[in-house]
Design a protein that fits this description.
- By secondary structure, this protein is α+β, with helices and mostly antiparallel strands.
- Helices cover 42% and strands 19% of the residues.
- The strands form two sheets. A two-stranded antiparallel sheet has the order 1-2. Strands 3-4 form a two-stranded antiparallel sheet.
- Strand 1 and strand 2 form a beta hairpin.
- The relative contact order is 0.21.
Length: 88
């Protein structure tokens, strides 16, 4: 069963929350975009596992004065009723 329209909309909302939280340096809001055991892979490497580790990445970036701007476009969302994959 393909993803429902509501699922697509919820994923787009999650993308927006993710980008806003990371761009504005909000660790807790950023970590809340993931499940408790969520993992972030970037450039083929594990960048954090679990909300505490993911939030710590943003705290560290804030301490280093790193600022980001995300402009997500061309979101490709694939999946079924049980799982989805997002590619940007």
């Amino acid at each position: 069963m393909p993803l429902a329209t509501e699922d697509h909309l919820a994923i787009h909302e999650l993308i927006a929350r993710y980008c806003f939280a990371i761009d504005h340096g909000e660790p807790e809001a950023y970590a809340a975009c993931f499940t408790e055991d969520g993992e972030l892979y970037a450039d083929g490497r594990l960048r954090g596992k679990g909300r505490a580790a993911l939030a710590a990445n943003i705290v560290k970036a804030n301490q280093q004065g790193l600022h980001r701007r995300h402009w997500p476009c061309n979101a490709l969302i694939e999946g079924d009723g049980n799982a989805a994959r997002l590619r940007l």
